[in-house]
Fold this sequence. Notes:
By secondary structure, this protein is an alpha+beta fold. 38% of the residues lie in helices and 29% in strands. It has four helices and seven strands, in the order αβαβββαββαβ. Strand 2 (59-63) and strand 3 (70-75) form a beta hairpin. The N and C termini lie far apart (46 Å).
Amino acid sequence: MPNSVAIVLLFLVLAAVAAVAISCRSSSTESTSMGETGPVESLADYLGRLQRSSDPHAFLIVADPDSGDFVQFTASREAVQIDFPVITSRQQELEDRVYQVLETNGLIVETTTGTDGSRFLDADSTESPERTAEVVLAIFRDAFGGLPAMFSYQSDGLGPLDGPSDP
């Protein structure tokens, strides 16, 4: 139960950060979304929108709404960074499995440390959003123990649904 509380608190903090970011925006053609639930098949679309974003602070968090397990992302035009925090005891239990899935899929995994001492597994995918989505689905299926029918998508600053973002 304490892990569930930590995950809920983390989501609340991220939602608060996103709310502040939204209130600080003047105007933008980019999408702002506090969160929505959608099919796992939409993952590649979300990753593509993240990669097309011109907002340097854009992010995406994809979670299993039942277990609370999640992966977070940032991106540039060239790559999507897959970021798995290793903070809670549940995440520490999953660390080796997530590392193995990333490595098995040809990604170079780096362990980074935050300013507060927290650790993260980071891997840059320069593949298409569809291929990156396959890797992420493998994380949920093979590391987290199951692929849900729906994901919770938390994001801010995603690019448009189709085509390049505005300059």
